[in-house]
Design brief:
Blueprint (H helix, E strand, L loop, with lengths): L4 E8 L10 E5 L3 E7 L13 H13 L8 H19 L2 H6 L7 E7 L4 E5 L3 E4 L2 E4 L3 H19 L4 H6 L2 H13 L23 H4 L1 E4 L7 E4 L10 H14 L23 E7 L2
Antiparallel strand pairs: 1-10, 2-3, 3-4, 4-5, 5-8, 6-7, 6-9, 9-10
Amino acid sequence: MTPLKIEESLLLGKANDPTLCEDAIVVNDHFVAVIDGATSLIERRPGQKTPGRKAVDSISQTIANIAADVDAYVFFRALNAALLNSYHAAGTYEQVKSAPHKRSSAAVVAYSRKRSEVWLVSDCQALIDDTFVTSSRRADVLLSEVRSMFLESELLNGKTIDELRVNDTGREYIETMLVRQKRFQNIGNDNPLNYYVLDGFLKDVQSAVQITPVPQDCSQIVLASDGYPYLKPTLKESETALHRILDKDPLCFREYKSTKGISGENISFDDRAYIRFRPN
């Protein structure tokens, strides 16, 4: 099989430390994928991987061994099963079953060369020429608004942007709700706050996966994590749009409302992964 023409790519952690990055890019003869491990809501012990990093590593290894001709549902069932097996291997199944915020969770967007399709679960994103593909979470929107309101009140009370960057009291204010939000993952579309994610407990794969056919005349595909607030046709354009926000609104509560901003010495509000390539 002729190798894909990779035009450009970037993988960069919010802390500019590769060991802490919870995003990944996987490229092989059959698939191109971007994996976004969920930001950890539990304290990381020195030398230990975060749940998000564990998810990324497990999914990356699984993609490397998946047959070229599988459909989207078989693909994501395999990724989900790998996460479930990792809990049993580590002896943590019962713990994570009752505490979703401790699970190894991730969003994935993938291109299948054999199927000529882009597959998406959760809030990664893609551009198929000019067609934008993503998924949003209602709870993220709600909590971003709450954090924004809290930070605005802090400024009215005399705090400064610099002080809030050192100690993001808005993030602290919504932390309990961020943990509660995890209760809604993969519980089904009957609940308005449901959202789908790979965490080992995804049962309704057919409802979770977005499948987008790639037209025969498609000239390029971009896959990325949600570390890019505005996905553009080139890396330079995407980086420019990101840095415009980071320069103007480093707390990410006005220009681009998020559940987190740039913390401490970090270089962005989130890890980011971007790859642009020419399909078959």
